[in-house]
Specification:
The complex is a heterodimer of chains A (154) and B (147). Chain A has 154 residues and is mostly helical. Helices cover 59% and strands 8% of the residues of chain A. Chain A has 9 helices and 4 strands. In chain A, helix 3 (33-50) crosses helix 9 and helix 4 packs across helix 5 (73-86). The longest helix of chain A has 18 residues, at 33-50. With 147 residues, chain B is mainly beta. Chain B is built from no helices and 10 strands. In chain B, strands 1, 2, 5, 8 and 10 form a 5-stranded antiparallel β-sheet that branches. In chain B, strands 3, 4, 6, 7 and 9 form a 5-stranded antiparallel β-sheet that branches. Chain B is globular, with a radius of gyration of 16 Å. The relative contact order of chain B is 0.41. Classes of the chains: A mainly alpha (154), B mainly beta (147). Chain A binds chain B through residues 24, 26, 28, 30-34, 36-37, 144-146, 148-149, 151-154, and chain B through 48-56, 98-104, 106, 127, 130-131.
Chain lengths: 154, 147
């Protein structure tokens, strides 16, 4: 668990407004442990539901169906059409496309991730690229204890 | 035979409480056990200085006097405690207080052996460098007196 990332997520992420009433920071007046535990757990529940923490990048093979599923049929088809049209003039994309057709494109590999990122603006939007890249990262369950460490340190 | 309960504050350099403000061991003054005490307990109370976080625990150990076994004299030697409280590896575990997962202040009463001549207690806060925890301790014994 990267506690710095978790703190940023709690304070500025999509769930920040919902988390704000439960936040207890070191500079705040003392709150007893049995009370603050419930507040920390409330934040953990909000983060897990609304803005989950992502773990380390691992190997994950994807194919055409994965793209359609993650981006949605219409948006996914549009992206695939764009990639299909671009592949003739872009050799790395041509071979990546071959792997994609075989459900064998590993979005956990550093080179693949860099190539996908490089296509932002031409084939993908950043949120679309993030959606595909995040397939290679598992969701990490956040506990109230994690929140306490993120907000008040060790 | 009259029976009474006797309480005695455990002190650190004569102070009733000790702020555990680092991860080091803090060793109390020595307490001599009365000959008439046939059972005893230590009352412990740990109060976090700030809002607790996970891991804000206090480990408490007891260092019984090993007497003056090499000289055969009447003095008290304590395992580890003579090394400026930097270690308590030979001390007996007494309690683990947790100001995050339990209540804050967290309290506990732990029985001790009254056969030894004397004891000290050693305590350290796992995250005392970030949030100091104030520890207070008291000995309570069941004491008999022949009248």
């Amino acid at each position: 668990m990267n506690y710095s990332d978790l703190k940023v997520k709690i304070q500025t992420g999509p769930a920040a407004a919902a988390c704000a009433p439960y936040m207890v920071l070191p500079e705040d007046p003392k709150v007893p442990g049995h009370v603050v535990r419930e507040k920390d757990q409330a934040i953990a529940d909000l983060i897990n539901a609304q803005d989950p923490m992502l773990g380390e990048v691992t190997s994950r093979l994807i194919g055409i169906g994965t793209v359609l599923n993650v981006l949605g049929p219409a948006e996914g088809a549009l992206v695939l059409d764009t990639l299909d049209a671009m592949k003739a003039g872009l050799s790395p994309l041509k071979w990546a496309w071959t792997l994609l057709e075989r459900d064998a494109l590993d979005v956990g590999l550093e080179a693949t991730r860099a190539q996908l990122q490089a296509l932002v603006g031409s084939a993908f939007t950043q949120p679309q690229a993030d959606a595909i890249l995040n397939l290679a990262r598992n969701t990490v369950f956040v506990t109230g204890a994690d929140v306490s460490i993120a907000l008040r340190g060790v | 035979m009259a029976v009474s309960k006797v309480e005695q504050q455990i002190t650190w350099s004569a102070a009733n409480t000790q702020s555990l403000n680092s991860v080091n061991w803090f060793v109390s003054d020595a307490i001599t056990l009365n000959d008439s005490d046939w059972e005893g307990s230590i009352q412990l109370r740990a109060d976090n200085s700030g809002t607790p976080a996970s891991g804000d625990t206090v480990e408490v150990r007891i260092l019984y006097s090993v007497g003056d076994v090499d000289n055969g004299g009447g003095a008290n030697d304590f395992p580890d405690a003579n090394t400026a409280g930097t270690t308590a590896s030979q001390a007996n575990f007494l309690a683990m207080l947790d100001t995050y997962n339990n209540y804050d202040p967290d309290s506990k009463v732990v029985p001790i052996d009254t056969a030894p001549k004397a004891f000290k207690i050693a305590a350290r806060a796992a995250q005392g460098g970030t949030r100091a925890i104030t520890l207070a301790a008291r000995l309570i014994t069941h004491r008999s007196a022949i009248s």
